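Work Package 4 report. The design task specified in the project plan requires that, given a folded chain encoded as structure tokens, an amino acid be chosen for each position. We show below one input record used in the internal validation round.
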């Protein structure tokens, strides 16, 4: 739920709404502070009007921090 909410607020650099599709999970990592000692990242392909080539975003659903926008995007 948190990832989808984040993606609903994420915008292109001029405020364009994103279209996104989850591609799956990847990239296992170790973090002893998590209940299972680690996790996986979720991959999303995102695009918006005017973007020449879709971008891939890797989101961590296990750790909650203040949301930030990747370079070239913004949060509204």
């Amino acid at each position: 739920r948190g990832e989808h909410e984040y993606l609903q607020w994420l915008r292109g650099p001029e405020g364009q709404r994103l279209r996104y599709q989850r591609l799956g999970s990847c990239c296992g990592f170790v973090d002893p502070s998590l209940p299972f000692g680690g996790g996986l990242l979720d991959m999303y392909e995102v695009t918006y009007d005017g973007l020449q080539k879709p971008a891939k975003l890797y989101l961590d659903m296990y750790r909650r921090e203040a949301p930030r926008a990747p370079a070239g995007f913004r949060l509204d």
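Helices lie at 2-9. Validation will be extended to a larger panel in the next phase.
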